[in-house]
Amino acid sequence: MAVIIGLTGGIASGKSTVSTMLKERAITVIDADVEAKRAVEKGEPAYDEIVSHFGQEILLENGEINRQKLGSIVFYSEEERMMLNSIVHPAVRRRMNEQKDEAVANGEKMVVLDIPLLFESKLTYMVDYTVLVYVNKENQLQRLMKRNGFDANEANARIRSQMLLEEKVQLADFLIDNNGELASTEKQLDDLLLQLKDKQ
Ligand code: ATP
């Protein structure tokens, strides 16, 4: 039997860093953000639903969805945001499930679903175990400021707009502490993979 892992984190906590390490270890990682983009490409069922609800005016000249325009519509309207989510979320879940099933059918013993909002969107039922990439508030702030060029106010506002990592710590089955050097993160990941192998 294959074990399905849900990988999550908070803004700038190091989830992409860990996801890259997993891929380097030849583990299939299915990225919810990538699937969310693909799910609304021209030709996809969700694309048709979005155009039929929001109208042709949210399209670019090449027929693709103008994500910025759609983003600003849903930013200002909770109702429209819920409508968009009700179209996109099931499509993303379907795509992730299909790819997971395919990987398992190919004999893979471990598949990772990389889902930033795993807890917020209550998607833990999709996975066997949840893994949180954790950093303390100070490192999160410093790394976010450095990566995105934000000042402390802006970085703090971004951190506060999400479920706090401390809260996610309570919910996760396993933690990877990414406060230290990357080598330490890598070592924890390898130890965790060994533990999870036993659960297959
Ligand atoms: P987001 O979800 O916001 O995209 P993330 O959780 O995927 O972020 P990363 O992009 O992996 O986070 O890491 C955030 C920043 O911190 C990056 O610039 C990355 O290079 C850096 N970083 C990650 N891990 C470490 C580490 N252990 N030591 C120093 N810097 C790190």
From TrEMBL:
Q: Which family does it belong to?
A: Belongs to the CoaE family.
SUPFAM superfamilies, per database record:
P-loop containing nucleoside triphosphate hydrolases (SSF52540)
What lineage does UniProt assign to this protein's organism? Bacteria, Bacillati, Bacillota, Bacilli, Bacillales
Quick one: which pathway? Answer: Cofactor biosynthesis; coenzyme A biosynthesis; CoA from (R)-pantothenate: step 5/5
- The record lists the organism as Cytobacillus stercorigallinarum
Q: Where in the cell is it found?
A: Cytoplasm
Per the record, the domain of life is: Bacteria
Q: Which Pfam families does the record associate with it?
A: CoaE
Read off the InterPro entries from this record: Depp_CoAkinase (IPR001977), P-loop_NTPase (IPR027417)
Q: What is this protein called?
A: Dephospho-CoA kinase
HAMAP family the record matches:
Dephospho_CoA_kinase
NCBIfam families recorded: dephospho-CoA kinase (TIGR00152)
Instruction: Tell me, in a sentence or two, what this protein's role is.
Output: Catalyzes the phosphorylation of the 3'-hydroxyl group of dephosphocoenzyme A to form coenzyme A.
Q: Say if the entry is tagged with keyword ATP-binding.
A: yes
PROSITE patterns recorded: DPCK (PS51219)
Its catalytic activity?
Answer: 3'-dephospho-CoA + ATP = ADP + CoA + H(+)
- Single GO MF descriptor: dephospho-CoA kinase activity
Instruction: Print the keywords alphabetically.
Output: ATP-binding, Coenzyme A biosynthesis, Cytoplasm, Kinase, Nucleotide-binding, Transferase
